[in-house]
Design a protein that fits this description.
Structural class of chain A: mainly alpha
Shape of chain B: globular
Radius of gyration of chain B: 22 Å
Helix content of chain B: 25-40%
Oligomer: heterodimer
CATH class of one domain in chain B: Alpha Beta
Structural class of chain B: alpha+beta
Strand content of chain B: 15-25%
Number of strands of chain A: 0
Number of strands of chain B: 10
Largest interface: A-B, 28 and 38 residues
Number of helices of chain A: 2
Largest sheet of chain A: none
Number of helices of chain B: 6
Strand content of chain A: under 5%
Distance between the termini of chain B: 34 Å
CATH architecture of one domain in chain B: Alpha-Beta Complex
Shape of chain A: elongated
CATH topology of one domain in chain B: Aspartate Aminotransferase, domain 1
Radius of gyration of chain A: 23 Å
CATH superfamily of one domain in chain B: Aspartate Aminotransferase, domain 1
Largest sheet of chain B: 4 strands, mixed
Order of helices and strands of chain B: HEHEEEEEHHEEHEEH
Distance between the termini of chain A: 46 Å
């Protein structure tokens, strides 16, 4: 934080603030990178294998 | 409106038997934080739906989320989650609803399951897709016409990298920087606050001089200045909406304040 900090409650009344943190994962950056890199490699497509016309069914 | 937020008495008078839903943006167009808990009982009179619109999702790092004030539907914009501005596009949005409305949501729902036997791997399947997508064709309510999956994955990775603490800090950065800018700007004679209520990272400033002259100074200093409210709100011709996000530094804000000081001189 490069600006002078004021208390949260002085800016926003406490009844408008969230009571609990958002339910987000608590993981390291490398774990995030590994997870999504792994997911990207599980995708099957013409870059990774044989792709017949049967796979090209595309719904709009 | 009353002091930059929804007037509860006006809202109460406006809703009636013919009202389908009450839609409230949080924080609203002026950046002011609405008291959604006070609006909720009015929005739930009769069979009305209470819809919450979140155009700046970073605000959810510190502000109460739609579920906590009993909103039926929450919709919003997610560009600020790790996506680029790219001159206004592409963008992605989100839509969430209470469980009882799930079958009315357009689109498809992907469910998570576990494989039977063997490795018990996690799998994802299309749990809910309306038949009309296959048989009603152009008359269907839920066709998927554009695919913003890449942006959605980007936003998901952004949130995973931030985590619980980081997401809260994102909200605090926006809030603290915007309030610093607000204090600096309103300290300059000729620039005054229009509303006195709480705001997140946008605020309205009334300018005593010419807005056109101000815009010219912004251009000379390579700044895209505030949004002139005359374009959206007649009667607020001398007002400008400012926004400060986590991407702005103290130096950026100080430069803006310097330019505003020069205009005054």
């Amino acid at each position: 934080m490069d600006v002078p900090v004021e208390s949260l409650e002085s800016m926003i009344p406490s009844h408008l603030l969230r009571e609990e943190s958002a339910p987000l994962p608590e993981v390291s950056e490398i774990e995030v990178v590994r997870h999504y890199t792994h997911l990207s490699q599980r995708n099957f497509g013409v870059d990774t294998g044989f792709l017949s016309a049967r796979f090209l069914h595309y719904e709009v | 409106m009353c002091n930059g937020v929804t007037s509860l008495t006006d809202l109460d008078a406006a809703v009636g038997p013919g009202t389908a839903a009450v839609v409230v943006q949080q924080p609203n167009f002026f950046g002011s934080v609405e008291d959604m808990r006070a609006i909720e009982p009015i929005a739930h009179k009769g069979k009305m739906l209470f819809v919450s619109v979140i155009t700046e999702p970073a605000s959810l790092g510190i502000l109460a989320p739609p579920g906590s004030y009993n909103a039926d539907v929450a919709v919003g914009e997610l560009m600020s989650f790790g996506n680029t501005m790219s001159f206004g596009a592409p963008a992605l949005g989100f839509m969430a609803a209470k469980q009882k409305f799930v079958r009315l949501i357009p689109g498809r729902l992907v469910g998570q399951t576990v494989e039977e036997g063997g490795k018990k791997q996690t799998g994802y399947v299309l749990t809910l897709q309306t038949r009309e997508q296959h048989i009603r064709r152009e008359r269907a309510t839920s066709n998927i016409c554009t695919n913003q999956s890449l942006l959605a994955v980007g936003a998901t990775i952004f949130l995973a990298a931030l985590g619980k603490q980081g997401f809260r800090e994102l909200g605090e950065l926006c809030l603290q920087k915007a309030h610093y800018a607000f204090r600096q700007i309103t300290a300059i004679p000729g620039f005054e606050a229009v509303f006195s209520g709480p705001f997140f990272n946008e605020f309205v400033i009334k300018v005593s001089g010419s807005l056109t002259k101000l815009q010219q100074h912004f251009v000379q200093a390579s700044i895209i200045g505030g949004y002139p409210l005359c374009e959206s709100y007649p009667g607020m011709d001398d007002c400008m909406l400012f926004c400060v996000t986590e991407t702005r530094t103290k130096e950026d804000i100080d430069l803006l304040v310097r330019v505003l000081n020069e205009v005054r001189m």
